[in-house]
Write the C-alpha cells for this entry.
Amino acid sequence: MNAARKYIVGYTICVAITLCAFLLAQIYGQTQSEFPTREMLVAALVGLAVLQFIIQIVYFLHLGEEEKPRWNLAAFSFALIVVVILVGGSLWIMNHLEHNLHTNMFEEENIPPQILQ
Amino acid sequence: MGANAHEKVSKTRASAPERSLSRGRVTFGFWIYLMSDCVLFAALFATFVVLRGATFGGATPAELVDVPFVFKETIILLTSSFTVGLALLAALQGRKIFTLAALTVTLALGATFLMMELSEFAHLISEGNGPSRSAFLSAFFTLVGTHGAHVFFGAIWMIVLMAHILTKGTTEGNLRKLTCLALFWHFLDVIWIFIFTYVYLLGMVI
C-alpha cells in the first residue's frame, strides 16, 4: 500500500471507530442504559479503544514496517508489558487493600477529623 | 552494516516515501524516549484508576463528561495526527509549500484542542472543582494536564521546525526532525484514545 493511502485509510477507520464509541455512549445516556446495557457498553468501549490503538500503531506509527532485527517492536513490547504490570498491578493491589480494610480510605467520613483540620 | 548503506541510498533519493519512512538511529532513539513516556502516562493512569472513586464530596467522574464536547476534541486531535502524517509525506517528496501548509493546519488544530482543554479546566475550577478539591480531581488534572502539556511543547517544537523548513527547505536534517515530531504527535493521539475512553466515556458508566 502506498504511504499516503495508508494514512487516509488509517484516518478513515479511526474516525469511524471514534464515531461508534461516542454514539454508543450517547445512546446509553439517552436510553437510561436500556439498550446498550452497562456491561455491553463497557465491553464495546474497551474493544473499540484497543482496536483504534492497534490501527494507529500500524497505520500512523508504522510499527511492523521495519526490517529485521525489529528493535522498535522489541522496545514497544517491553513498554507494553511494563504498562500492563503498572496499571493492572496498582488496581489489583489497591482493590485488595480496600477489601481487607473494609473501608475506602479516600472517603471523607473515613478520614480521622484531626487530619482534616 | 546494511543499515548504513540503506541510509546512504535514502539520502540520495529522498523522493521515494516508502524507503525513507524506514528509520535511522536518531528515530530509534526517539522511539525509546516515546516508550518511556508511555511508562510515565501508565503511572498517571494507574493513579487515576486507583483514585477515581475518591471524590470527597466533589465532582464525580460522571459529572465531568460532556459527550459532544469531548467528541469534538477527539476528532480535532485525530485530524491533526492525520495532517502531520501528510506533512511528513510531502516533506519526503521535497514539497516544501505543502509541508508547511499541512504543518500550519496541524498547529491550528493542536491550538484549538489546547484552547478547548483549557476552557474545560477553567470551567471546572470556577465551579470549585479545582485540582485541590479531591484526590480524584488531582489525578484527573494531572493526567489530562500532562497530556495537554505534551501537546503544548509539541506545538512549540512544530513552530520552530516550521521556521527551519521555511529557511532551509526539506533538508536531510529537517526530514529527520520532522519524522521525530510526527512520531511524537501520533503518540499523543494514541494516549488520547485511552484518555477519552477511560476518563471520559467510561467515567459516565463505572
Q: What stands out?
A: The radius of gyration of chain B is 19 Å.
